[in-house]
């Protein structure tokens, strides 16, 4: 049993003022495998004060000094890949391939921040004016459990690259990953106070970050409900806010698609990260004229998807992160049936042979309509909904008939048709016949999927204020 007692403030691991201990579970066995001591509002205030004190000096560091610091961070995080992998398997239950990606991403994303910093234009001319990008102040960084280490490293590296200092409120459910990252960052030897990490509850430590006037900017990844709340709370102190929120992403299968060829992409898009992915392609739009053919191929393909022990190399889908999340997914499987959608695969309960662990059967509903809750609400589990459409215009209308707009996938043979459809989908990202990721491109959502963008120069800009200097021309 691992006990994580300390938080990280002003360059030191310290005992929090908060007294509450929070249980960490292995979602594959439901066992308690650790405990973390949570900070409280007073701890958050100390961390914010440390970040404020460190801001003047850090904001004046040169590009080269920041690159050197980020390179040390990268080396220290990369050296802990295996420890991170083990924590991700134990406290989150990601299947092996996904887990390995999640263990390498935190270091990779620091390299991407370094690349963005190397080429970033902090100054440019606009007519007679010099336009300067200046760091906004202390950033409050709040992360979810579905890729905690990656989000900490991405947000922190970008904030530091821009010249901000930071207070991180990681997901309280991912404290093992946080501890490994904190030890790595400590080893990187950044000046005290430049980054601070306070484990704690969202409505305690997160709330203090949202309210405290010492925080100039919030970067949040999590649910749309909490994101909206942060926007409202942050408005009182005019915080700059970047939100990466939920999704109900459409996979648009065009009528010329080769169903057998695209089915692996369809299922991978939907079931990625055990369905606990903001970008998961959970609404599958299929031409009504070919629906029966699609259903038959999908049913066959899903029968080969394994949901079970994440340490088994054949496993595609691991457990849900918590009992609460498992119950929520079960509720939606019931709701889908009550709404009149047809179960093509899966259903309620655990997969055959599993008596414990928060495992869900890979589930596909078909013959749904886009007004059903299973087509509108983010389920955050391996539950996909097939919605038939009449023609291309109908497909685009259904794809856009959602509160969300984070990601979309278009699949078809004719490249022109694919691109024509892709350009009409209201979404921060549209993939065509690929699930490839481009880390240099901006990432973020339309509508309730978020506000602002992360990654590359767009991500850096979110931590900067634009200042115009005029009148000193030679
Ligand atoms: P969540 O919103 O419940 O929690 C996210 C973080 O916010 C946690 O650290 C939590 O402690 C904190 N929090 C909760 N209440 C708070 C409050 N009142 N004030 C401040 N902070 C508070 O989300 P989750 O369940 O951890 O993660 C799943 C959600 O995250 C899904 O909706 C998913 O789509 C979304 N997500 C989005 C992206 C993206 O990039 N768009 C990526 C991953 C996850």
The CATH H-level superfamily of the largest domain is Aldehyde Dehydrogenase, Chain A, domain 1
Strand order in the sheet with the most strands: 15-16-17-14-13-18-19
Overall helicity: 40-55%
Total strands: the figure is: 21
Domain Aldehyde dehydrogenase: 14-468
Protein name: aldehyde dehydrogenase (NAD(+))
Keywords: Oxidoreductase
InterPro entries: Ald_DH/histidinol_DH (IPR016161), Ald_DH_C (IPR016163), Ald_DH_CS_CYS (IPR016160), Ald_DH_CS_GLU (IPR029510), Ald_DH_N (IPR016162), Aldehyde_DH_dom (IPR015590)
Describe the overall structure:
The protein has 474 residues and is of the alpha/beta class. The protein folds into 2 domains: 2-245 and 448-469, Aldehyde Dehydrogenase, Chain A, domain 1, CATH 3.40.605.10; 250-438, Aldehyde Dehydrogenase, Chain A, domain 2 (3-Layer(aba) Sandwich). It has 15 helices and 21 strands. A hairpin with a 6-residue loop joins strand 4 (21-25) and strand 5 (32-37). The termini are far apart. It binds nicotinamide-adenine-dinucleotide.
């Amino acid at each position: 049993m691992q006990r994580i007692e300390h938080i990280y403030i002003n360059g030191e691991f310290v005992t929090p003022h908060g007294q509450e201990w929070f249980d960490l579970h292995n979602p594959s066995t439901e066992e308690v495998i650790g405990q973390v001591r949570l900070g409280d509002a007073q701890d958050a205030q100390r961390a914010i004060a440390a970040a404020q004190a460190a801001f003047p000096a850090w904001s004046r560091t040169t590009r080269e000094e920041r690159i050197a610091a980020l390179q040390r961070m990268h080396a220290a995080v990369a050296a802990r890949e295996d420890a991170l992998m083990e924590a991700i398997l134990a406290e989150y239950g990601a299947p092996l391939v996904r887990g390995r990606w999640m263990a390498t991403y935190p270091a990779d994303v620091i390299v991407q921040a370094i690349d963005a910093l190397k080429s970033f234009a902090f100054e440019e001319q606009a007519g007679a004016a010099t336009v300067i990008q200046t760091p906004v102040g202390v950033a409050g960084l709040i992360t979810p459990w579905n890729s905690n280490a990656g989000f900490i490293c991405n947000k922190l590296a970008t904030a530091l690259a821009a010249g901000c200092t930071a207070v991180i409120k990681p997901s309280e459910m991912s404290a093992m990953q946080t501890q490994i990252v904190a030890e790595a960052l400590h080893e990187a030897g950044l000046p005290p106070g430049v980054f601070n990490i306070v484990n704690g509850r969202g409505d305690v430590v997160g709330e203090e970050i949202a309210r405290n006037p010492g925080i100039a900017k919030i970067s949040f990844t999590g649910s749309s409900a909490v994101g909206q709340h942060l926007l409202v709370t942050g408005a009182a102190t005019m915080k700059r806010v970047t939100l990466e929120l939920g999704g109900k992403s459409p996979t648009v299968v065009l009528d010329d698609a080769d169903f057998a060829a695209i089915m692996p992409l369809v299922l991978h898009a939907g079931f990625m990260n055990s369905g606990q992915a903001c970008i998961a392609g959970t609404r599958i739009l299929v031409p009504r004229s070919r629906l029966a053919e699609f259903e038959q191929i999908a049913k066959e393909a899903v029968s080969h998807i394994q949901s079970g022990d994440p340490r088994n190399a054949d496993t595609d889908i691991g457990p849900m992160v918590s009992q609460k999340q498992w119950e929520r997914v079960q509720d939606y499987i019931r709701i889908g049936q009550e709404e009149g959608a047809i179960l093509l695969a899966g259903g309620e309960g655990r997969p055959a042979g599993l008596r414990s662990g928060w495992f869900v059967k890979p589930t596909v509903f078909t013959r749904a309509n886009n007004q059903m809750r299973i087509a509108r609400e983010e389920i955050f589990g391996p539950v996909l909904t097939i919605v038939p459409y009449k023609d291309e215009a109908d497909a685009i209308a259904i794809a856009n008939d959602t509160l969300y707009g984070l990601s979309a996938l278009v699949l078809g043979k004719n490249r022109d048709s694919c691109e024509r459809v892709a350009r009409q989908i209201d979404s921060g990202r549209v993939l065509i016949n690929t699930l490839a990721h481009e880390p240099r491109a901006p990432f973020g959502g339309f509508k309730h999927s978020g506000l602002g963008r992360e990654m590359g120069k767009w991500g850096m800009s979110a931590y900067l204020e634009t200042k115009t200097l005029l009148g000193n021309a030679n």
